[in-house]
Write a structure and sequence with these properties.
276 residues; alpha+beta; Jelly Rolls; 17-stranded mixed β-sheet; 4 helices; 17 strands; 20% helix; globular
Length: 276
């Protein structure tokens, strides 16, 4: 029966070949990368996330106030997610270099490998902007209907959504704001009189953005019953000190505990040797 069902499905796909989406495999479950490091609490599809967990298309990553997460995509790009964030990996095809991410809240730093494939793209979508890159290191934050984008290296293109005009300069095609290293832009619901334009990134703002998405590699867990060498040094020192103290106490007890000469001993008789 299963063979017959597969045969019927194959025939239907051939008949409907002008509609490739009908026969295409579902996006969910296709590998995109893996989680490399995290600071709890962080979840993947609302389940506790762990280092080395596989990352698939349509996976939703969330971090709590105390959580952060770093993931590696299969093309070598690195995603560092800050606290109180929600990031969905819509698509990542390493071969064609087609990557699409969706961020509804929080902070994200992306170190993107250079795109060399025809029609390759790397995009981050927020509710009011689309950020596109070719190969760069950049930061995106979305909160209270404001998208903040900072370019660390390379070139970043930021396109406001909702029909907003980026600038009055007609040469800026597509209403996109182009950022180079050291520049930033903020996209809000209130369009500035001159349109959205790039501006220099203040040093303290750049430092804060880097710090808020830093996810250190945690040391491996300690093996039960094994402590650091200093623990053993201190322990042996304590034993040695106790042994010296005990020896000193015994010696004092031996010296001071000898019986005094009995009254009536002849002069010159050693103490403790009188027998009467």
């Amino acid at each position: 029966m299963d063979t017959l069902n597969r045969l019927i499905a194959g025939v239907l796909c051939l008949l409907l070949s002008p509609l490739p989406a009908v026969c295409a495999p579902p996006a969910g479950g296709q590998r995109a990368g893996q989680i490399n490091a995290l600071i709890p609490a962080a979840t993947r599809n609302d389940q506790p996330a762990k280092a080395k967990d596989e990352l698939d298309w349509n996976d939703l990553l969330k971090t709590a106030a105390s959580g952060r997460l770093r993931a590696g995509l299969d093309d070598g790009s690195i995603l560092s997610v800050g606290s109180n964030s929600e990031l969905r990996v819509l698509q990542h095809d390493a071969a064609s270099q087609q990557t699409s991410l969706e961020m509804d809240a929080g902070r994200l730093r992306s170190k993107v490998v250079k795109i060399t494939q025809p029609n390759g793209k790397f995009e981050v979508h927020t509710p009011n902007a689309v950020i596109g890159v070719i190969g760069t290191d950049f930061y995106v934050e979305y909160s209270a209907n404001k998208t903040t984008v900072i370019c660390y290296t390379g070139v970043v293109s930021v396109t406001p959504l909702g029909g907003a005009h980026a600038t009055n300069n007609p040469s800026n095609a597509g209403n996109a704001v182009t950022l180079t290293a050291g520049q930033m832009v903020e996209i809000t619901s209130e369009i500035p009189p001159g349109g959205y334009q790039s501006q220099p990134t203040p040093a303290d703002v750049q430092r804060a953005s880097i710090s808020s998405t830093d996810v250190p590699d945690l040391p491996p867990p300690a093996v039960a019953g094994v402590s650091s060498p200093w623990h053993w040094v201190l322990l042996m020192g304590a034993f040695a000190g106790a042994a010296v103290g005990l020896t000193f106490a015994v010696d004092r007890g031996t010296t001071t505990g000898r019986p005094a000469p009995t009254k009536g001993c002849p002069p010159g008789t050693p103490p403790g040797q009188c027998n009467f």
